Amino acid sequence: MSVADLLAGKRVCVCAGSGGVGKTTTSAAIALGMAARGAKVAVVTIDPARRLANALGLEELQNEPCRVRDERLAGAGLEIRGELWAMMLDPKRTFDELIDRVAPDPGRAQEIKQNRVYRELSTAVSGSQEFTAIAKLYELDQEADFDLLVLDTPPSRNAMDFLDAPGRLTSFLDGRAMKAFVRPTGVGVRVLGRGASPLLGALSRVTGVDLLSDLTTFFGLLGDMTNDFSLRAAQVERLLHSATTAFLLVTSAQREPIDEAIWFRRTLQTSGLPFAGVLVNRVHHDLLGDSEPEDVAAMLSERLGAGLAAKVAANFRDYHVLARRDHNNVGRLAAELDGSPLLLVPQLDDDVHDVAGLLQMHRYLFASQAERDRMIDAVVA
Question: What's the confidence (pLDDT) of residue 193?
Answer without folding.
Answer: 46
